Amino acid sequence: MPIISFKVPLWLKEELDDLVRSGVFVSKSEILREALFRFLTEYRREMMLGRTSGGAVGEVS
To answer: Residue 14's domain spans which residues?
Structure first.
C-alpha cells in the first residue's frame, strides 16, 4: 500500500490518538483510510447529482 504523509494540527492528532486509545480504531492510518473513503464516496455522489463545483463536500457557495 502506498504511503501518503501530511501534517495536521496537534488537536486533530490528539483526537485521532484518543480514538485509537479507546479502541474505536486499530490505528490512525485506519481512521484516515476510512475518512478518505467516506469523503471520496460522498464527493462522487455529489458530483453525480451535480451538487458540487469542485469545493469541499457540503461547502456553501
So the answer is: 10-48
pTM recorded for the entire structure: 0.75
Residue 32: inside a domain, yes or no?
A: yes
Number of domains in the chain: 1
DSSP state for residue 26 in the 8-state scheme: S
Burial of 19 by CB count in 10 Å (0-12 exposed, 13-18 middle, 19+ buried)? middle
Instruction: Write down the H helix ranges in the chain.
Output: 10-21, 28-48
pLDDT tens digits, 1-55: 899 999 999 999 999 999 999 999 999 999 999 999 999 999 999 888 887 666 6
